[in-house]
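Field reference: sequence -> structure
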Amino acid sequence: MLEPVMYEGGVYKHNQIIELVEDLGGYIIQKNVMQTDVVLLMLVPLNDMDIVEEKARELLGKLTRAPLTGTEIATVAPTLAYHHLPHLDCDVAEFLRKKGAKTNMVGLARGVGKRICQLSAYERDLINEHDLAVFILGNYEHCIIEKSKRLYEGIEVPIVVTGAPELKLEDVPNATAYVGSFGRILHHMRHSEELRTLDKLADVIGKVLDNVRQEIAKDPPSVAPPRIKKEIEEQIPEIIDSLHPLPITLQMNGARVKLPYEEYHEKLENIQFVEGMSMKDVAQVLPSKMRNFVLIRARPKSETGFVI
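Structure field:
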């Protein structure tokens, strides 16, 4: 298994830890350089973590586990109108990005009202393309409970719900986890107690994603998502010219490729691996509900009979 970790340290000699992780069979997901500091999001083989930790200490850097690394999360608001305070949605989305996730904000067309709220088929399919959905709800306990009975119909990914009251999970139907102390906050979350609430949300999401990883490990994908990213970067040169943030967005069982589906799906399907098979042998190449991007879903081992 690959362990998601974050390295924080100086720019000086940071290439040594990049080379070490790649030599061990791991992957560098993202690299951010800020003046004299560097932040690396990495996937490291679990059995080799001691070696990477030793190198981090040698470089006077800090290595921390980052379970949100390599995931794509939908932050869902009932609407994007000021009534539902997108300030809070932006704070949640940005904080999860700092923890290593790629977030997309989804504002529902008909999410208003505890009796009439609903998802459209397009919204449901779009949310299901992510690894996890965070529904950011309001202050009223009854409203949160009633919306939970129908707002999540058809969503197959784990659902984390936030709201103002402190509720037990069994009080929120169809949710995977619930985090209180959010609600309708009239300002950006900057105070210490608010930042602690965001930390709690990130911890809860991390535990949910770890459970998903354990389930995936029971029937692992035929090709690791970071391997998909690496092969696309090497064999599809047009991805380098993409101006989208994270042109290849990793997910737990695949990737979202920000290239036009009609033009590139055949090229992606015909990507060759050194083991002798092509992308279409180990993954499905599908049209995404997000713009006209490409969604790649790795086939499980039980379907192909092998892992490369």
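Note: The chain has a mean pLDDT of 91.
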